[in-house]
């Protein structure tokens, strides 16, 4: 049993670091590339050079000191933005499966799967609604940041921890 938990914790941590590296790279190319005139019309090699020149020399600033994924330099701005959405959905799905596995080891009741799925659907739906409200109110930055934090929580062990705690309260209340 301890080996199972060690494996799932290691998978959560490794996947979390991998996810962060990929997303930081995509965001960096989108944001920094957009600041460079004509960046997305440059050749692959020129893009690599332009981004390398835009990095700040600060080893404690992960955003500017991360290991670059140069394959992203082949992509257009539209492709990078689409990739960002695709990665978000992919990582939400993978973390859902990991959270489900962790909860199945803790709670043998099949209703827990529905609880977790409901958590994901409601949270993701609410985040999408908040994101959409940014358009309506003309405050995309504020609303995007809120929805990004909500979706970010779904890409972590937080949903399993919340559902496990809620399940414990449910069991305690149903015994009374």
Give the arrangement of secondary structure elements.
Blueprint: H1 2-35, H2 44-54, H3 62-65, H4 77-106, H5 111-137, H6 140-154, H7 158-174
Helix pairs in contact: 1-4, 4-5, 4-7, 5-6, 5-7
Report on this model:
This protein has helices at 2-35, 44-54, 62-65, 77-106, 111-137, 140-154, 158-174. The two termini are 31 Å apart. By secondary structure, the protein is an all-alpha fold. The model has no long low-confidence stretch (mean pLDDT 91). Helices cover 78% and strands 0% of the residues. The protein has seven helices and no strands.
The structural class is mainly alpha
Oligomeric grouping of the chains: single chain
- How many extended strands? 0
Poorly predicted parts: none
Largest sheet: none
Strand content: under 5%
Helix content: over 70%
- Figure out the total of helices: 7
Terminal CA distance: 31 Å
Rg, alpha carbons: 20 Å
H/E series: HHHHHHH
Keywords:
single chain; 176 residues; mainly alpha
Task: Give the gist of this structure.
With 176 residues, the protein is mainly α. 78% of the residues lie in helices and 0% in strands.
